Protein: Signal recognition particle receptor FtsY
Amino acid sequence: MFDGLKDKLSGFREDVEESTEAEEAPPEADASTESDATDEPNASAADPAEGADRAEAESDDDAGSDDEPSTFQRAKAFATGRIIIEEEDLEEPLWNLEMALLESDVEMSVAEQILDSVRESMLGESRKQVDTTGELVEAALHDALVDVIAVGQFDFEERIAEADKPVTIVFTGVNGVGKTTSIAKLSEWLADRGYSSVLANGDTYRAGANEQIREHADRLGRDLISHDQGGDPAAVIYDGVEYAEANDVDVVLGDTAGRLHTSDDLMAQLEKIDRVVDPDMTIFVDEAVAGQDAVNRAKEFNDAAAIDGAILTKADADSSGGAAISVAYVTGKPILFLGTGQGYDDLALFDPEALVESLLDEE
Ligand SMILES: Nc1nc2c(ncn2[C@@H]2O[C@H](COP(=O)(O)OP(=O)(O)OP(=O)(O)O)[C@@H](O)[C@H]2O)c(=O)[nH]1
Structure:
């Protein structure tokens, strides 16, 4: 999952390391000093006291030699924890990072935000003492990514636990992105946590929609509320809520027809569902593999129908990760789950911190 993006982030770390190491190696150094500077550029930083001792020793040993001041100054800089990263060291790596993010389908404003915050934390006044340049880069990237990915994040399970029952959740998005499958998966996810659910098929538009969702309901042993094709979707979901109230069911999962935000009729249907049922949550479903298209649709659906969160399906088949990075920042609404396969258990609660850690993991 997201392997392409992972490689590109790792490329940024290497770029910065390369450009700072090149700068740190003193051009006039003799062979042994050169090897200190290039093979173990940060050995002194890992242990400032040792760095200072070495500096003093070198200063005594080499008294009078030409390279003495630069070796001493560098060791002293390490000893005081100063990280020698200048604006020019970052220029090219940041440019490469921007290109890499855009190639990975990260939305432009999101890429810019990530760049700004990486630049700010790496060139800021109060530079922290860190062991290596790689760690400085990793910390900067970590914070920049979490900041954009975790926008609006809330604890979905807690929301379900605390809400009055039944909790009504309506799913929306374009055709064929995995809405119905995600509903079935979420029903299973809820069952694993002790919550009962009923499915309501508000997709009265598409021929075959009832059969498709019934297959899932039968396989999972869930009840399904459906009307004939052409019926009123709001009425189906309303019936789902009544059924849940009468039968002590915790959650109503309402499917809707796949639609484009530009389809006035279908968008009017969503508004009617909102009016008639007043759902607790509207979840936008799209494919991670759709990249920028998914990000744009998330924004357009949110503008048109105020979503509460998103599920990104087919993350298992997505190498770029751009949609996963961008959706929350662009909509202000969190990604709640990732679909990670075709099985009913292939639904993972979205955890920004864990995602960023896996993206930056060197393994
Ligand atoms: N690999 C993978 N496939 C998925 C995932 N989620 C859904 N799919 C597959 O995507 C296809 C479409 O899923 P559906 O649930 O039928 O899509 P839908 O959005 O309900 O489609 P409509 O009802 O036509 O709007 C199916 O073959 C699913 O098995 C996922 O997370 N990973």
The chain has 16 helices and eight strands. The beta strands are 167-172, 197-202, 224-225, 251-256, 281-287, 309-313, 335-339, 347-349.
